[in-house]
Amino acid sequence: KFTPSGIALESGKELEADVIVTATGLKLSLAGKIQLSIDSQPIKPHESYFYRGAMLSDLPNAFIMFGYTNASWTLKVDLVADWACRLCNYVEKNN
Q1: CA 66 from centroid of its chain's CA atoms
Q2: Which of 23, 33, 49, 80 is the most interior residue, by most CB within 10 Å?
Q3: Buried/exposed code over 64-94 (b: 16+ C-beta within 10 A; e: otherwise)
């Protein structure tokens, strides 16, 4: 538990701290480090525009979903999946 001067430990002792850094150690690897390509031409995600948190500008007809890192992961993925389904339904109806 955080206290005004640090952290209260389960033992009852208090660990004094000037600064407290919280971290999850989360390390992501896009697509499991596989090389994305279209017609044998590599796609470089770091050079692409990430539209609406779901699509890469150089990768048509594909959705990529990432959840929040500091809130419910499924909340963000659910919102993006809903948008992706609405987009697919719109395209199917209007093309």
Answers
A1: 3
A2: 80
A3: bbeeeeeeeeeebbeebeebbeeeeeeeeee
